[in-house]
Design goal:
The chain is of the alpha+beta class. The chain is built from 5 helices and 11 strands; from the N terminus they run H-E-E-E-E-E-H-E-E-H-E-E-E-E-H-H. The mean pLDDT is about 95.
Length: about 210
């Protein structure tokens, strides 16, 4: 089968063979090692190879938006990945986010809970933005992203759950300031990039719909 013919090949889960699977670490997170092979687009099978997978519960992010005042609420907190990766300050500006704690918990319910825990804000309405894999080459983490209508007139302060070592500062910004930071490249969290770019496309519709 040539390259031209391979373009019509559709592969699915039955085209993967798992030869061995084991958890190599269990702590705050979980790491699983697979030994596997899969079918190739051009026919036949790949060589047997190993992959480590970072296992996480599904996560939810919500962009807090006040359409009446045209404001957004973002949170700032310490991120160990930034500390390890760069020489810059390890505090990032992000949208509110958290993991689905229990099986069967609805993503929308998580968005409402996290907005209260991280920003002391009540969600008045929710609109889905996107669902996506954060980095499927190495983790099974899956995100649900929402825009949440809020009243941000009195928002601000420091929140979070002490038992989870959370120390979260809330920032309220004009939407144009968020877009300016986006344009400058100051937003470097994937969830926040997705949400901010979505708001650029839907801002006027939301202001009319949610007024």
């Amino acid at each position: 089968m040539g390259v031209r013919d391979s373009e019509s090949v559709e592969l699915n889960r039955s085209d993967v063979e798992i030869l061995h699977e084991e958890d190599v670490f269990r702590g705050f997170f979980r790491l699983t090692r697979f030994k596997l092979r899969h079918r190739l687009f051009a026919g036949g099978w790949s060589d047997i190879f190993s992959r480590e997978l970072f296992r996480r519960r599904d996560a939810v992010g919500v962009l807090l938006y006040d359409p009446q005042r045209d404001l957004v609420g973002l949170v700032e907190q310490f991120r160990v990945g930034v500390y390890a990766r760069t020489g810059e300050k390890p505090w990032l500006l992000e949208i509110v986010a958290g993991v689905i704690d229990t099986d069967g918990e609805a993503p929308a319910a998580v968005a409402i809970r996290e907005a209260r825990e991280e920003a002391n804000c009540d969600i008045l309405a929710l609109e889905p933005i996107a669902e996506y894999f954060s980095s499927p080459g190495g983790t099974d983490e899956y995100f649900y992203v929402y825009c949440g209508r809020c009243d941000l007139s009195g928002a601000g302060g420091v929140f979070g759950l002490p038992e989870e070592n959370e120390d979260i500062r809330v920032h309220v910004l004009p939407v144009d300031e968020l877009f300016a930071r986006l344009q400058r490249g100051d937003i470097r969290n994937g969830l926040t990039l997705v949400a901010a770019q979505w708001l650029q496309l839907h801002r006027e519709r939301l202001r009319q719909q949610w007024q």
